[in-house]
Amino acid sequence: MAADRYTHGHHSSVVAQHASRTVENCANFLIPHLQEDFALLDVGCGPGSITRGFAKYVKSVTGVDNSESVIAQAQKALGETGSEGIEFQTASVYDLPFQDATFDVVYAHQVLQHLSEPVAALREMRRVCKAGGLIGVKDAIYSTMRGSPALPGIDKWRDVYMATARQNKAEPEAGLFLKRWLREAELKDVDYTTSTVTYSSANEVARKNWAESWAERTIHSFGTQALEYGIAKEPELQEVASAWKQWAADPESVFLFVNGECYIRGDCVTSIVLKAGNVEGEAENELGYFAGSATNQSGRRSHLAAPDCLALQEVIHEALRQTQITGLDVDAVESCADGKILDDSLEATAFARAYRPQGTLNVDDTAPLGIISAKSGVGNQLEAAGLSQILKVILGSRAAAFHPTPHLRIVNPHIDIEMCERNAILAGESLDFRLPSTYTGSSLSR
Ligand SMILES: C[S@@+](CC[C@H](N)C(=O)[O-])C[C@H]1O[C@@H](n2cnc3c(N)ncnc32)[C@H](O)[C@@H]1O
């Protein structure tokens, strides 16, 4: 994995400024989503003041950073404030030492902007996030960093910093790219917004700390890299440092910048349209095809407490659109059916509506949709359940018969029977199919 060069470095002027950050001013947008029983991971946690702050809102907090020295400082600060439910360890965001689906929330504050491979980092964050969990990211947009009085030295500071970061293959405009990177990491339906940071006399301590930190950092942190890369010369760095001091000395000075911030649910609902293989002209060992698939991570299907019928219908429509067939061409659908009264009834209704929409041409001449499920046999073991669903559908499709839902004794009374009786069968018995090549669907939630 990438061995990135961290543009700020861990000079005391950098770490001290980071240590003044709080959850309330750096992760405000996440706070309403936190719950007492959550386990939260803060990646690239630095000296850990934000990490420690999260402990007020959730049960356990883990901070990781790839710098041993900064983790040692985070641990030391923990000694001063108490450590219940908080731990720090050295680890890279590219290779997190945690099992899949360990955390309810995974957060990265001002970290992606320093990475040469932000998408790889997001994939790793996604891996350790639980189904239904939350991934949050926030990064600055350096070109928006502006102040008054407008000093040429501060314009130079911005240019030198951005050029140095880019020389390190990092992106100082990261806040503009979060949505794109998340999509490339296969995290869709991102809730993106921006927030501003303002330094003014309203908070004298923060205003001075910001300016003094940058004056020092220009000489001792990114400035040394700028010299090494030939991006700036010594007198230019002195000019930048003096500009920051001049700015700090002016009580009417202001400085602001914009951050991009967003969160996404780690859950998703997926619809796959499958077609049996081994028909004429195809290789003998081909079982079947993924004819189309769609995923939604808006969080609207999320959570056991609030499944969303429309979100499921949307992904089914998208998968059908890709396959270039209509819902009426699908004979049966393997459902997620996790045995919960509300989830299962909404899923059945969504299937009936998406595959046999009332009022569409030929719907009355089409056989009702078979709704089947392997789940009572295999349980809800995420990938295992998904794979068994797909194999069951493909094999059933090749045999032109579907195995019924095992153990189906009584139908969930909350399922919209009127809708389903007309349009769908909840299969407690074997179902015959029209053709072995008929399309079938599979709906997976995680
Ligand atoms: C700008 S600081 C942000 C620190 C903290 N999140 C905050 O906002 O105060 C970026 C942090 O990311 C860490 N970092 C950089 N590359 C990393 C990587 N590959 N894995 C983990 N941490 C990394 C740096 O050591 C640094 O502490």
From TrEMBL:
Which residues, by range, are in coiled-coil regions? Answer: none
Which positions fall inside the Ketosynthase family 3 (KS3) domain? 151-422
Per UniProt, what is one GO molecular function of this protein? acyltransferase activity
PANTHER family under this entry?
A: METHYLTRANSFERASE, N6-ADENOSINE-METHYLTRANSFERASE TMT1A
This one is known as Ketosynthase family 3 (KS3) domain-containing protein
Which SUPFAM superfamilies does this one have?
Answer: S-adenosyl-L-methionine-dependent methyltransferases (SSF53335), Thiolase-like (SSF53901)
Listed InterPro entries: Ketoacyl_synth_C, Methyltransf_11, Methyltransf_Superfamily, PKS_Beta-ketoAc_synthase_dom, SAM-dependent_MTases_sf, Thiolase-like
